[in-house]
User: What shape does this take?
Amino acid sequence: QVQLVESGGGLVQAGGSLRLSCAASGRTFPSYAMGWFRQAPGKEREFVAAITWSGSSTDYADSVKARFTISRDNAKNRLYLQMNSLKPEDTAVYYCAATRVAISGSVSDYSHWGQGTQVTVSS
Assistant: This one.
């Protein structure tokens, strides 16, 4: 089992940056691949980025490629999402999630979810 808690969200102007963190409890964190998802009001939850358990491979949604970077520190049980060049359309609640699948962009593959952190980008 792993429990996840996100932090680092907030209000930022377009073009700005934010770094989200996800703290994981338990010793099993290194055995999970991890992902970031987001959900805007009235929209379905969508994939943002994913990373393998070792951090050796990553995957991104086309909408965030070259702007967002996912990373992890297994020694600290932490997952990160560095978000640069933010746009108003990035406004959403951001969730971190854990999966036993090697790497995935599918919501249904993830078994553990955090409570989310709000990111608001003003124009």
In short: DSSP finds no helices and eleven strands in the chain. The first strand starts at residue 4 and ends at 7. The chain has a mean pLDDT of 96.
